[in-house]
Each structure stands twice: as structure tokens, then as C-alpha cells.
Design a protein that fits this description.
This protein is an alpha+beta fold. It has a domain at 20-81. The protein is 42% helix and 12% strand. It is built from five helices and four strands, in the order ααββααββα. It has helices spanning 3-9, 23-30, 46-53, 58-64, 78-85, and strands spanning 37-38, 41-45, 67-68, 72-73. The strands form two sheets. A two-stranded antiparallel ribbon has the order 1-2. The chain has a two-stranded antiparallel sheet with strand order 3-4. The longest helix is centred in the first third of the chain and has 8 residues, at 23-30. It is elongated, with a radius of gyration of 15 Å. It starts with a helix and ends in a 5-residue tail after the last helix.
């Protein structure tokens, strides 16, 4: 494996353990290559299937990320979120 390949596969952010899911796990949901029809079920795209089967559904993801689906996140969790997932900017 080349140095470039290795660096692409390493996590850029080291999770602190405050949240159940690590950045690379969550990124699998939004990777565009995962947004196509599943060959075995044309009613569900792979990313939707992953949300349900691998993560337990939207409610579980929100709970494990300490997020209220109606109220959002608590201000006192922002530092942990930045530490675990990085700043929300480009």
C-alpha cells in the first residue's frame, strides 16, 4: 500500500468516545457510491438500508449522537462534537 493510499484510509479525526458512531461509520451513509438501488430490493437504496440495518434507524442514530430530532443538539456537547467529528465547515 502506498503512503497516499494509507493516508486516505486512515481516520482524519480520532474519536473521543463521547458518541457511539465514529466519523468513518457515519460517512458510509452519505458516500455517493452507496446511493444506488440495491440489486435485491429495488424499493430501497443501499444508504437507506444501512441506516435501518446497520445503525438501527434514524431514532437510534439521533440518540447515540445525543441529538433531539425536534430540538437539535445541546450547546454543552459542541466541544465534544468538534473533537469527535471536526468543525462543521470546509
Amino acid at each position: 500500500m502506498s503512503k497516499a493510499d494509507k493516508s486516505m484510509k486512515e481516520n482524519l479525526i480520532k474519536a473521543s468516545g463521547q458518541f457511539k458512531f465514529e466519523p468513518d461509520q457515519l460517512s458510509e451513509i452519505v458516500i455517493l457510491d452507496n446511493h444506488h438501488k440495491d440489486d435485491n430490493n429495488d424499493q430501497m437504496i443501499i444508504s437507506s438500508k444501512m441506516i435501518i440495518e446497520d445503525f438501527g434507524g434514524i431514532d437510534v442514530i439521533a440518540k447515540e449522537l445525543k441529538c433531539d430530532l425536534k430540538k437539535g443538539i445541546q450547546i454543552n456537547t459542541i466541544k465534544d462534537r468538534i473533537n469527535d467529528y471536526g468543525p462543521n465547515k470546509f
